[in-house]
Amino acid sequence: MTAEYKVHGDVAVITMANPPVNGLGLSTRLGLTDGIAKANADSSVKAIVITGAGKAFSGGADIREFGSAKATQEPNLLSVIRVCENSDKPVVAAIHSVAMGGGLELALGCHYRIAAPGASIALPEVKLGLIPGAGGTQRLPRVIGVEPALNMIVSGEPIKSEMLAMLPGQKLFDQMAASAESLAEEALALARQMAAKHADGTPKPLVKNLPCKHPQGDAYFQFARNMVKGMSKNFPAPGKCVDAVQAATKQKFDDGMLTEREIFTNLMLTPESRALRHIFMADRAASKIADVPEDTPKRTIESVAVIGAGTMGGGISMNFLNAGIPVKMLEMKQDALDRGVATIRKNYESQVKKGKLKQDKYEQRMALLTPTLSYDDIGQADLVIEAVFEEMGVKETVFKKLDQVMKPGAILASNTSTLDVNQIAAFTQRPQDVVGMHFFSPANVMKLLEVVRGAKTGKDVLATVMALGKKIKKTSVVSGVCDGFIGNRMIEQYSRQAGFLVDEGCTPAQVDKAVEKFGFAMGPFRMGDLAGNDIGWAIRKRRAVERPNMLYSQTADLLCEMGRFGQKTGAGWYDYQAGKRDAIPSAAVVEMIEKYRASKGITPRKISDEEIVQRLVFALVNEGAHILEDGIAGKASDIDMVYLTGYGFPIFRGGPMLYADQVGLFNVVQAMHHFAQNPHDDASFWQPAPLLARLAAEGKSFN
Ligand SMILES: NC(=O)c1ccc[n+]([C@@H]2O[C@H](COP(=O)([O-])OP(=O)(O)OC[C@H]3O[C@@H](n4cnc5c(N)ncnc54)[C@H](O)[C@@H]3O)[C@@H](O)[C@H]2O)c1
Predict the structure, then answer these.
(1) Could you tell me if the CB of 7 is within 6 A of ligand 1?
(2) Is the pTM of this model over 0.85?
């Protein structure tokens, strides 16, 4: 059992001991109920203290039990709390460090609570699309008041114990310990005091017996509901938090508990909660690589060099400066170097102006940056990231030079988006030290980092770069070597499909609107205008040589021939007014598209938003399945993380692969067969990837 039982004189202390955060898994729950039973059976024991070992009281549910039968096996948390409440001997919760979710609910079921200052207190279930499910919505308002409780439950954000202790009339903490160090002693003293108080059989206080009212009653909840609705758009849980807390004010405690349970169970089945729980797990899983053990030794990275001070080089450097890691930034010419440094300065200064960065922090960060024109200055860096022009010849020159100057053991990374990392590695005598670090633009803002694993990349190099990704606050996902890696390889199919939709009758604005209604941050045409339509143009020119049979709509090429590269040229799929980013539908583009259709003999038809979304998203899904099959991505959830953090895929849908799972892979394949009948689409496009076809036939899912 993952809870220790010890008797200190006349007080039994039950210490949850389930690292890392004393999650309330089955064995911890058993430890608690056993401990309470033992204490009650021992006549020498007069009171009970519950606390947590290590760095938490309890962080709540044990995520390792998510989705397993153990999660609900008796004693479940509700039963554990009942056992605490019903204990003949007073039970004191001694809270320190972290009391979240089920951990806080457990404490609320104890007769008394003492907390150390600095403890983070929260009911974060809303972040998983749920509400607290073990009385949190019914008990917390009773001890800190309806409004503060609802704020905590709707936001899920932690509040420090000492702040909560200052709330007028609060009954959450009966006592604040002087310090974390003195908590154990003070908890024992409180327990003894309470044992004496109740020795004559005086009933022990239960949170559930406290009153729960808001002076404005329903009017307040209506106001709260409106506020929450505005902020939580696609997520049902925050609104349901309001319902649950309102129930605490209107119903008897036991009825309120039933309401809470019903809401919790219903939310558990929503696609939004499934998406959020999936993302929570996927985020943790992304850093795990099947054949790279967690204890793989890592190299030390205390200094970084960046080659190229352009768009990416500057942004990449900022990540490390922000993390306190010194950066040497190298360019070929002084003016390019000066421009790069000036851009970094400008970025920081705008943060200072907006109050997001303190002046002294800004200066500290700039002091970590050393611009240079000489390779002699960078040889001692632990990691060098190349971000020069996207041409193999230039990469070759740079990597041959790096091979000469970098110290042994330095990691040599390339930020290339499209080039073969194995070929780049082969320019050096140390391919085991070469890896891709594919940042997304703007590199100081975007969360995603694709870590590209070459055929010879060392496991320690991978482990080091993944850990470093965490340090610079990126979501790092490992990708194998292929054209476009995970993200851009999939987006190419999505863009092709967007082109076919236009050929058949959609306007760019109609496609964008449908996809944005589905929840994407930006539709494919607005995205093209933002990124620059010339990028895709260059790729298609290359494809015409490499894969001459691949069909494309030619509208995007015609657009580029009109010089409409996007926002940077003031015109793309849309028109733009000087200095503004609003996309205005363009008559010239419509005319170009209509002429193109006529030249191909296509009679335009009306296409539903549903078809638009399905064709675009299933294009991603099918390529995702190929990517899994080819071993480019290790798991479907990695692909989801790439799309959620790098491509604006709607969070509440959990990523393309989870979305396909939720639609049902059988249905996805059926839709693909249907699209393949369309004479204006590319029938081979809709050939289901073998993995997708197999999973669909077996009634299985990606995740
Ligand atoms: N721009 C993006 O959205 C994006 C996103 C991800 C990855 N990338 C990749 O990042 C790399 C850089 O792209 P960018 O957009 O920053 O390009 P950029 O043109 O803005 O910057 C490239 C910089 O490299 C410098 N440079 C060229 N050759 C050099 C050399 N031999 N030594 C030192 N410096 C040299 C140039 O002077 C220029 O300042 C490319 O490989 C690109 O594919 C770009």
Answers:
(1) no
(2) yes
The pLDDT value recorded for residue 682 is: 78
Average pLDDT over residues 364-381: 98
269: pLDDT strictly greater than 80:
yes
Sequence-separated (6 or more) residues with CB below 8 Å from residue 383: 301, 303, 304, 305, 410, 411, 413, 468
Closest Cα to atom 7, ligand 1: which residue? 417
End-to-end CA distance of the chain: 31
Count other Cβ atoms within 10 Å, centred on residue 253: 17
Q: Confidence band (pLDDT; 50, 70, 90) for 695?
A: very high
User: Residue 583 is encoded by which pair of tokens?
Assistant: 């996309």
Q: Which of 163, 162, 248 is nearest to 213 (CA)?
A: 248
- 105 catalytic? Reply is yes
Query: Do 304-481 and 3-268 have the same topology in CATH?
Result: no
Q: Which residue's CA lies nearest to atom 28 of ligand 1?
A: 388
Strand order in the sheet with 98-100: 98-100, 120-122, 159-160
Tell me, what's the pLDDT at 543?
A: 86
Question: For residue 543, with 0-12 CB atoms within 10 Å meaning exposed, 13-18 middle and 19 or more buried, which class applies?
Answer: middle
623 CA from centroid of ligand 1 (Å): 28
How many angstroms separate the CA atoms of 668 and 622, rounded? 9
Span from the CA of 385 to the centroid of ligand 1 (angstroms):
11
Return d(Cα 136, Cα 257) in angstroms, integer.
9
**Which one-letter amino acid corresponds to residue 63?**
I
Catalytic residue among 105, 260, 386, 504: 105
Average pLDDT over residues 496-500: 96
What H or E segment, with its residue span, contains residue 194?
A: helix 183-197
Fold of 3-268: 2-enoyl-CoA Hydratase; Chain A, domain 1 (3.90.226)
What CA–CA distance (Å, rounded) separates 691 from 657?
Answer: 13
Average pLDDT over the chain reads 96
For 487-697, the fitting CATH number among 3.30.70.360, 1.10.1240.10, 1.10.10.10, 1.10.1040.50 is 1.10.1040.50
Query: How much is the pLDDT for 326?
Result: 98
328, 384, 404, 417: residue to mutate for ligand 1 pocket, most atoms within 8 A of CB: 417
In the predicted model, is pLDDT for residue 681 greater than 80? no
Domain positions in the chain are 3-268, 304-481, 487-697
Q: Is 426 in the pocket of ligand 1 (CB under 6 A)?
A: no
pLDDT at residue 356, as a whole number = 96
The more confident residue out of 177 and 547 is 177
Q: Specify the pairing of strand 175-176 against strand 304-307.
A: unpaired
Looking at the predicted structure, is the pLDDT value of residue 535 above 90?
no
**CA–CA gap between residue 381 and residue 403 (Å, rounded):** 13
pLDDT above 90 for 375: yes
Classified by CATH at the fold level, domain 304-481 comes out as: Rossmann fold (3.40.50)
Categorise residue 67: left if φ over 0, alpha if ψ from -120 to 50, beta otherwise: left
pLDDT at 51: 98
Sheet strands (E) in 26-69: 47-52
Instruction: For residue 563, report the distance from its CA to the centre of ligand 1, in Å.
Output: 23
Cβ of 480 less than 6 Å from ligand 1: no
